[in-house]
Design brief:
alpha+beta; 10-stranded mixed sheet; 6-stranded mixed barrel
Length: 440
């Protein structure tokens, strides 16, 4: 895998050279015609399994631990890396805390990246991941962008599969079809020394926990508590977005908005919290003097509208400026739309699939002229969530939802994706995992 396969051509020569060097030093096997590194690379075949002798109780799906995303499975995977010794043997061991020096780079210089993905208990009784190869490749892209060590994405995927195969049987039992658990592969720099420099030590770890349904914000216990206290009013379905103002941005051209690194998220939390306090669910991030639409919170954003010339389009922001995260759900929506919605489907009108820059001015005019059919956000947590309102420059813009709680296209795309994830449609994107449990 050449560096050009990890980064688009628009990446600067300096960054590309640095990434190439990281890959040669830490994961030469993924570099096309790369010379073999003398240090061990990440190798899932060397996994050492230590079963948890004090297993936890699986919580009920409506318990507080589920909504707080604090209830993890029995095991986790860890694997350390050092610039002098390379990758160690991965460990599958009981979930628990680990010790890190207060001087570790992750605490001072945001040298941290992660992935967000799920595994699913199908209605056919089988466990599945959804396009996990894309998550593994994206994590390599994120890690090397912040000078963390490289790895073969296939080896990371093997480790993810191993954790799911061991904990899935108990934590997603066959008695709970149609449910899922969250997976969080993470890498942090851990060397016990200050100094603005490339990390010399790192830790890769993978954990799994319960995740609530973020696509229905009215069901959130925090919202229900405010509703009971009378501080908020009952509301219609759909996400309510608060458009960002000119004095704040989430990402910028030439930056690292495309990478799933912690530095993309921490600075946005104050704005997100304020949006929630004002009765909105997410920030709709705009960019520049023209208010280009980029992302909704940490999710990708789509609109379905009719152009002034009468063409029906599905539109989302492009990836070229490295502002937008290349979401797995985003890619899947685009792929399915190209495959199934560009020709007539049942009663739905076919549409064009477009990746281009667009502005809030265009959205406003489309609403005023009744050309905006629907809008929705997509991501691992939000999945496919219809948008019902956008607050922009003092005005609440109402977004149609023709089916009451969703738009027609968003609802259909969500159904197709759900069917693949839970095995009701046999599809290559559904990665079946053989369950072994703790008997391994």
């Amino acid at each position: 895998m050449a560096p050009s396969a990890i980064y688009p051509e628009t990446t600067s020569e300096l960054t590309t050279a640095a990434i190439n060097q990281i890959l040669k030093e830490t994961a030469s096997s993924v570099v096309l015609n790369g010379s073999s590194s003398s240090l061990p690379e990440l190798d899932a075949s060397k996994l050492v399994f230590t079963p948890n002798t004090k297993p936890k109780i699986v919580p009920e799906l409506d318990s507080p631990g589920v909504w707080s995303m604090a209830s993890c499975t029995d095991h986790m995977i860890t694997c350390s890396w050092s610039v002098t010794t390379g990758w160690s043997n991965p460990q599958l061991k009981p979930f628990g805390p680990f010790t890190i020096s207060p001087l570790a780079s992750v605490f001072h210089y945001a040298t941290e990246c992660f992935e967000g993905m799920k595994f699913y208990r199908g209605y056919d009784g089988r466990l599945r991941l959804f396009r996990p190869d894309r998550n593994a490749r994206r994590m390599l892209k994120s890690a090397t962008r912040i000078a963390l060590p490289g790895f073969d994405p296939e080896e990371l995927l093997k480790l993810i599969v191993k954790l799911v195969s061991v904990d899935g049987e108990k934590w997603l039992p066959k008695s709970r079809p149609g449910t899922c658990l969250y997976l969080r592969p993470t890498m942090i720099a851990t060397a016990a020394a200050l100094g603005v420099q490339k990390p010399k030590e790192a830790l890769l770890y993978i954990v799994s926990c319960f995740i609530p349904d973020h696509s229905t914000p009215m069901m959130n216990p925090a919202f229900q508590a405010r509703l009971a206290a009378g501080t908020v009013q009952p509301r219609k379905p759909g996400l309510r977005l608060l458009a960002s103002k000119d004095d704040m941005v989430r990402a910028w051209p030439g930056g690292f908005g495309f990478a799933k690194v912690g530095a993309n998220y921490g600075p946005s939390l104050m704005a997100q919290g304020e949006a929630v306090e004002r009765g909105y669910d997410q920030i709709l991030w705009l960019l520049g003097s023209q208010s280009e639409v980029t992302e909704a919170g940490a999710s990708n954003f789509f609109v379905v509208w009719r152009t002034p010339e009468g063409k029906l389009q599905l539109v989302t922001a492009p990836l070229g400026d490295k502002i937008i995260l290349e979401g797995v759900t985003r890619a899947s929506v685009l792929d399915l739309a190209w495959e199934r919605l560009t020709t007539p489907f049942l009663e739905l009108e076919p549409l064009e699939v477009v990746e281009r820059k667009f502005t809030m001015a265009e959205v406003v005019v489309a609403i005023e002229e009744d050309r905006l059919l629907e809008a929705f956000a997509v991501g691992t947590a939000l999945f496919v969530s219809p948008v019902s309102a956008i607050h922009y420059r003092g005005t609440d813009l109402t977004i149609p939802m023709v089916n009451g709680n969703t738009g027609a296209y968003a609802g259909l795309l969500k159904k197709w994706l759900t069917n693949i994830m839970y095995g009701e449609e046999q599809h290559p994107w559904g990665y079946v995992v053989k369950e072994t449990g703790v008997r391994t």
